[in-house]
Each structure stands twice: as C-alpha cells, then as structure tokens.
Amino acid sequence: MAQGEVILRFDDVTFEYGPKKPILNEVSFTVRRGAKITLMGQNGAGKSTIFQLICGQLEAESGATHLAPGLSVATARQVIPRNQLELTVREFFEKCFNRKIYDIDPKIDQVLKVVNLAAPKERLVKSFSGGQQARLLLASALIQDPDLLLLDEPTNNLDKSGIAHLTQFLIDYPKTCIVISHDAQFLNAFTQGVLYLDVFTRKVEQYVGNYLDLLEEIAARIEKENRKNAQLAKKIQESKDKANFFSHKGGKMRLVAKKMRDRVEQAEEEMVEVRKEDKTIRKFIIPAQEEMAGEIVSIRSFSIIKDHKAVECAAKISVRKNEHLLITGPNGIGKTTLLESLASGISKGATIAAGVRVGYYRQDFSTLNFEDTVYESLGRVSQEQSEENLRAVAAGFLITSEMMHSKIGSLSEGQKGLVAFARLVLQKPGLLILDEPTNHINFRHIPVIAAALNRYAGAMILVSHVPDFVKQVRIDETLDLEKYIS
Fold first, then answer.
1. Which of 129, 231, 407, 446 is 20 to 30 Å from 252 by CA-CA measure?
2. 105 three-class SS
3. ABC transporter domain: which residues (predicted)?
4. Domain 5-215 shares a fold with domain 295-484
5. How crowded is residue 367: how many other Cβ atoms within 10 Å of its Cβ?
C-alpha cells in the first residue's frame, strides 16, 4: 500500500436515500496519495454513492468526508449521460470543465492517444460503440488531470486489447486511483488495497493487497468465527446440561447450577456474528417460446465499420432452435449495430422467422423505460403470468418488494441488468439477443447466468468481451467480424 499522506478520509459517514433505503452506516476509511484502490460490493450496495459523496454531488446524513486541501477529483462514470449523447466529441470534452478552455483540441488529442481511440472531434458521441464510449469516459476524466481519479466499471464494453491497454495505464499511473469493477483478473493486475462495502452491515472494510488477498482473508476470518462459535456452542451445551442436573439436587448444588447458568450467559455474549457473503441470484431457466421449428435467424449479409465507413459483407449463417451463435470483433467494428438491426427487424441482410418472440438485452438498457417502476416493467412482458409468479421470479434476481416500486431510472446499473434478466424469464422468447449481458453484474452471478444460457432451448446470439464468461457458455458457431476487415 502506498505510504503517502492521507488525501481522503471518511469519518463515520451515514447516508440514505430516504428513511426506507439506508446505504451507508457510519463508514470510515482512508486513502493515501499514490494508492491504487479497488472499491467492491454487491450490486446496489452503494459503491457509486461513495463516489458521489467524494465528489460532493451528495451530502452525508451524518459524519464527514475530508479531502486534502486543493485536491482535484474527476470521475469516469459507467455510462455517458443520455443528454450528452447528441454532443460532438469536442463539446463532450468541453463539458468536463466549468470554464472555457481555449486550447482544448491539443488536450483532446493527447487524452485520446492515451486511451487508444481515434475520434474525430466533430463526430457525435452517440455514433460510437459501447467500447468506444467507455474510452471516451476514461478520457473525459483524464483530460482534467485530477489528483484523485475515480473509475466506475471502466472495463465494461472494452474488448481484450482495450482492457490490456487500460490495465497497463493504471499500472503506470503515478497518481491516486479508486476503481469500481467486478472483473477480478483486471483488478488483481494493479490493486494495492481493497475497500469492501458490505451490503449487510452497510460498512466499509479496508484490506491491504489485491482481490485474491481479500478472498483469502475473508475465508480465514469466516473459518475462525465459525470455529470460535462451535467451541462456544459446545461449552454452552455442557454448562446447560450441568445446570439442569444440579438444579434438581437442592441445597448448595443450586448455587452450582446458578454458576453454570452464568457461564451460559457469558458464553452466549461471546458468540460472534459470522460475516455474511454477498447474495447470489438463484438458479433460473429462461423458458423458450413453444412451437418453433426450422431456421430462426438467417444472416446473408451485414455491415462492418472500417476507417469510420460502413462496408457490406456477404455471409451464410443460419441459427436454428437450441443453437447459440457468438459474434466477436474489436470495439467499433459494428457488433451492437448488427444486433440492433436484427432485433428491430430493419436489417436488409438478415431475417427472423415470422412469429418468433425476441428477447433483447441491450448493453445500455435502452429497451427499458426508465420511468416505469420495476413492477410495471416486469408486468409488460409477463405473458399473462400470475402476480405471485412475477414476484417469485423477481425475488430470484434479488429484486426486493421495496425495489418493485422503484423507478428503473433510480436503480444502479447492476440492478438494471438483473431486471433485464428477470424480464427475459417472464417473456419466454424464441430468440435471445444478448449484447454484453454481464456488464455491471456482480461476478458471483456470472456462473448462474452462464448455466441458464446453456439450458436455453431457443436460438441465441451473443456478444461478450468477457473471456471467462464466454468459456462457460455453450457456443455452436462463432462469427468473427474482424476477419472481414482485410
């Protein structure tokens, strides 16, 4: 761990979104100058809230957040705000400053080079792929040259080379950085310390080392707590047995019985609460639409992006029931555009069989109405299922009764992802189109999601840049768009 001066300190910080939604309970931790820190915790635990408290966008109910005098802070958020998607690249970077920057073009060129992105300054932000937008987000924080860099899920949508580039950047980065991520391999490459936000206690635990070190320390702690409780439980039972025996003897033996009961009370007070692990979503199945046969999807041609221009490519791909197609390629080549054209039915070179219900998981969650409550969103695709079943499906994805009445827009990105999966279960699609379905999702959920996709009996088209996830999913055919570039 870096041994520089303390530049950030949380002292007993408590925060809640209203009386029914507590997030932090007397949280305390410190960050030293030059440290590379990971902030971890379950989806919806409040990690992004901590970033907003650091930046002053939110104010604690009690306690205090202390920043070193003159410390500058910049955040690379998970997603570009919708109201900035219509901006040009130059306008997007100008928004990073609260004053006019007259020599901003050279600064833009410099940070775009750092994030390895070719981006014409007049090009609209919305025209970039998800991975390219992730690089723009990182660049928007770097252009501010902050003393403290906050990165919120920076690997989402990044391809393999993008993650490698970001990893090396963070290894070499000379300033202080706090990163929120669910990518353990990425984190272990540079992390020197972990801040773990416990969703049960709503406190932050501070650990030295990387994520693997944290797992070992937590496992050892749980084993020690369980061992201590087992020893105390044995002692309690023995004392209770002796107390019951002596209480029937009368005379001085009753005094001995009282001492035994005192020992029981003392031992019960010494029992420790064993640390709880993050909750994992339940095993689930995405039911496939019934009465489907033959070819579900036919792809005869598609477009890729080469040198910022669309190039038409011929293909001969057929996806039938119970067949899974993986589409691969670098950021910006046109994977999301291909999926969107398929799902919307506007693709000139591809068709979906008539009557097939499409379940589309978009990486930006734009298939969700952010003004809907979770209950309304699930109800729209429930295929006339009972409310009891709807709520049972929601509970399996850690969607609580309280969350059911929350608007989609108020949820964390990870919680939006879980709602999107719950919708697929209720929808019973004949074709699944999944665009980076593990973005923002707690890594503990990923094996459960992979197992569900393996059991899916309909047709499936998947895009994912997460090798560990793809290895767990049954793939029957791969379409590598990069092979069409040359």
1. 231
2. helix
3. 8-224
4. yes
5. 15
Q: Which residues contact 158 (CB under 8 A, 6 or more apart)?
A: 131, 134, 135, 166, 331, 465
- The domain segmentation of the chain, as residue ranges, is 5-215, 223-278, 295-484
Q: First-to-last CA distance in the chain? A: 46
For the cut 50, the answer to whether the pLDDT of residue 408 exceeds it is: yes
In the CATH hierarchy, which fold is given to the domain comprising 5-215? Rossmann fold (3.40.50)
Q: Domain 295-484 has what CATH class?
A: alpha beta
Count the alpha carbons within 13 Å of 248 in the hemisphere toward its beta carbon: 4
pLDDT in tens, 126-146: 988 888 898 999 999 999 999
Query: Given CA atoms 29, 177, 37, 60 in this order, what sign does their dihedral have?
Result: positive
Instruction: Extract the tokens encoding 146.
Output: 């902050």
Q: Which two tokens stand for residue 190?
A: 């540079």
Tally of residues, the chain: 486
In angstroms, the CA 28 to CA 40 distance is 15
For 320, other C-beta atoms within 10 Å of its C-beta total: 16
CA–CA dist 380, 373 (Å, integer): 11
H or E stretch covering 350: strand 350-352
